[in-house]
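Morning!

This is the sequence you dropped in the shared folder:
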Amino acid sequence: MDTIVTSPVAAPSGATGEPGVAAASVYARGRRLQDIRIEDAGAWSRKEGHVVWIGLREPSPELLGRVQAQLNLHPLAIEDAGKAHQHPKLEQYGDALFIVARTAQLVDDKVIFGETHIFVGKGYVVSVRHGPSTSYAAVRQRTESCPASLASGEDYILYSILDFIVDNYFPVVEAVQYKVDALEEGVLQRTLPEPEINRLYQLRRELLLVRKAVAPMVEVCHRLEHADDELIEPQMKLLFRDVSDHIRRVEDDIDSLREVLAFAFEASLMAGQAQQNAITRKLAAWAAILAVPTAVAGIYGMNFQNMPELQWRYGYYVVIAVIVALCIGLYTRFRRSGWL
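The structure's back. C-alpha cells below.
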C-alpha cells in the first residue's frame, strides 16, 4: 500500500478557485488529505486506498474533457453530463457507474428542479450539478465528519449524495401538502373561486413534475441495492436500501396528495353543480309564482265584451284575492320543498 501523504496545512474543502469546480479533494482511510488540481486527479485516484471526490457546477466542455482524460470516463457518459434535462437513470460502463438524479427545492414558494450527474468508479466520485440546486458543501462536511464511514470509499460518498438529494424532496412535499390541506378545507366549506381552482391545477402540475423526478429514482436505488458485489460493497447495500425506503415514502406521499387533489377537484365541481342546481330551482320557483298573476292578467286583458266578471261589483277584489292566495300557496309549497 502506498504511503499516505498529508499536506502540512490543508486548505478548506472546495477552495480550488477554478471556475466550474466547486470542490476537489483526495481522501484516504476516511480522512481528507488535501485539495487537488484536476490535472492531479488521475494520479491520486490510482493510488491504493485513495479516493478523489470532485464536485463540478455547470462545467464547460473543456473542463469536462480534462476530468474525462484524468479519470478515463466513458465518452457517452461525458456527453450526457454536459447536457441538462436528462432523464433520471443509472448506467454501467464496465466497472464504473453513471447516475442522473433530479433535484428539487423551494424558491419563493415555487418548486424548481435541477440535475446532478454522478460518476463513480474505483478511486473517484465526480458530481456534476446543472440548474438550481442546493450546494453539496453540507454533504461533504457531514461525510468528512464521519471518518469511519467515509473509509468505505466511493460507495459511501455516492450514498451520501443520493441520501441528500432524496432528503431534499421531503420539504418540497411537505410544503405542497400544506397548500393541499388548505385547499381541501376550503372545498369542504365553500365553492372554490376561479383563482383557487387555478391554484389547484398548479399544485397538480407541481406534484406531477415532482413525481416524474422521484419515480425513476426508485429504480435507481433498487439497482444500487441489488448491484453486484464488484460494484457496491455488500455492507453498503443496507445504506442504499435505506435510501430506497425514503424515496418510496416520498413517492407514496406524492400519490396520496394527488388523490387528495383529485378529490378536491371533483368536490369543487360537485359543489359548483349543486350551487347551479339550487339557483336554477329558485329561478323556476319564482317563475312559477309570477306566472299566476301573469296568466290572470292575460285572461282579463283580452277585451272580450261578454266577460261576466267585468260587470261584477266585487270582481276586481276577488281576482286580486285569488292571485294573492295562489301566490302564497305556491311560495309555501316551494319553501317546504327547499326550492326557496
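Headline: The two ends are 91 Å apart (CA to CA).

More detail when I'm at my desk.
O.
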